[in-house]
Amino acid sequence: MPSLKDVKLQIAGVGKTKQITRAMGMVASAKLRGAQNRIERFRPYAEKFGEMLGDLAARTEEAAHPLLQVHKHVASAVIVLLSSDRGLCGGFNVNLISTALDLARAKTDEGLTVRFICVGRKGRDAVRKTSYEIIESYGDVMGSFDFRLAARLGGKVSQLYESGEADEVYLVYSEFAGMTRQIPTNMALLPVTSSAKEEDEGKPAAECLYEPEVGVLLAELLPRYVNVQIYRGLLDNSASENAARMAAMDNATRNCDELTNSLTLLYNKTRQAAITNELIDIVGGANAQQSQ
Amino acid sequence: MEGLRLDIVTPDKVVLQADVDYVGASGVDGQFGLMPSHAAMLSALKIGDLYYRQGGATKWVFVSGGFAQIADNKVTILAEAAELAADIDVDRAEQAKARAEQRLSDPKPDTDVHRAELALTRAIARIRVARR
Q1: pTM score of the predicted model
Q2: pLDDT at A62
Q3: Do B16 and B41 fall into the same domain?
């Protein structure tokens, strides 16, 4: 039987842990709300952008822009891995990293050289332990990022693709599919495949003026489209991270409650046992005196 | 007379949604104006200003790196950044201008001249729009 004092200390410790986990849970839920708002505000832009590009792509040839061209000789792939800077968010980072490494392994088996661009400390730390090369990494950015981060990443991968240093670019991020569902996803970023193109086929293209001409316009729009995709990934990732952390912290708080309950039970039992022992001593002593 | 519907959208928010009479913008090939019943058009915009007329009043907006699309009397401006004249932080723009000028006047080997030039253009355009 543990001593009363030990159990009391343990209960106090669990109580403090619970305070922390509950506070972290609340912070995560506030951040999640912020992230969801940003997704809401970004959606109109992304949608209009998709419309515009689809509209344009429907009118141009396949090889109108280097970012649309599929490289004939595919020798290297770049994986952009989005993760979080902090832990304590359940399986969030583990799932992302294993998705990314699975993809990397599959590509290596196909004979491609795989390199990484890491956003978020957790992902970077994990990739560092492997033999894959990290081209660039961004740490401590997931807390406060804006479109410029996406633009920087987009510029980097577009440049790698156009110069032929990368023949395929993938984005690994966690899709926010609801409070309890975050899906690690890998998305092919480059070459750009325009899904809008197929949808628009058959529909007669409305007469439209272009200024400057279509090819130049496409050259402006496509790199931005890549940025938009990355930004969308970043936003989803940050919402997912906070949702995952909220769930993890809720669980932890609940576990603390359970632990406190079972420890309190142990405390009471120990106390009761101590009292019983004392009584036995007293009664035993009294009996011994009487029988003398 | 039927008017135009103007939407200005950036990645961070919808900057403006309004019914207007006329939109003037600077495209990469030069200035252009949009009036109701304009033919469908898609144009890239320069870093600079954009204005619209609404019941006789002219209002200015700063637009950075964007596209304008018009179809069925709906004008959509997609920009990486856009600010209404009243929302522009002139002090910040002045600071950005000074920084960019300093970088350009004393270029070091690692200075990204192109980026500094863009920053300068943006700052000047912001200040111009705010002073209108």
Answers
A1: 0.79
A2: 57
A3: yes
Q: Tell me, yes or no, whether B98 and B51 share the same domain.
A: no
Question: What does the pLDDT read at residue A207?
Answer: 67
- Could you say which residues from 1 to 60 on chain B have a Cβ atom under 8 Å away from some Cβ of chain A? 7, 9-14, 27-29, 32, 39-44
Count of domains observed in chain A: 1
Q: Which amino acid is at A134?
A: I
Q: Least CB-CB distance to B13: which of A41, A216, A228?
A: A41
User: How many angstroms separate the CA of residue B52 from the nearest CA in chain A?
Assistant: 20
Of the pLDDT bands very low, low, confident and very high (cuts 50, 70, 90), residue A151 is confident
Q: CATH no. for residue B99?
A: 1.20.5.440
Is A69 inside a domain boundary? yes
**pLDDT above 90 (res A83):** yes
Confidence at residue A204, expressed as pLDDT on a 0 to 100 scale: 47
Q: Which residues of A187-201 are buried (b: 16+ CB within 10 A; e: fewer)?
A: eebbbbebebbeebe
Range of the domain at A153: 46-243
Chain A positions touching chain B (beta carbons under 8 Å)? 38, 41-42, 44-45, 48-49, 52, 55-56, 146-147, 150-151, 206-212, 216-217, 220-221, 224, 228, 231
What is the number of domains present in chain B? Answer: 2
Q: Which residue has the higher pLDDT, B123 or A207?
A: B123
Residues of chain B with pLDDT > 90: what percent? 13
Q: What is the pLDDT of residue A95?
A: 93
Higher pLDDT, A212 or A166: A166
CA atoms of A220 and B53, how far apart (whole Å): 28
Say how many C-beta atoms besides its own lie within 10 A of residue B50's C-beta.
Answer: 25
Q: Write the DSSP assignment of B78-96 as a string of letters.
A: EEEEEEEGGG--HHHHHHH
Q: Which residue in B14, B43, B80 is closest to A44 by CB distance?
A: B14
Distance between CA atoms of residues A244 and A231, nearest Å: 20
Q: What CATH number is given to the structural domain containing A216? A: 3.40.1380.10
Query: Which residues 6+ apart lie within 8 Å of A185 measured at CB?
Result: A99, A172, A173, A174, A175
Percent of chain A with pLDDT over 90: 50
| Averaged pLDDT of chain A | 87
Active site residue A256: no
Q: What does the alpha-carbon distance between residue B39 and residue B72 come to, in Å, rounded to a whole number?
A: 8
Question: A52 vs B10: CB contact, 8 Å cut-off?
Answer: no
Which pLDDT does position A194 carry in this prediction?
59
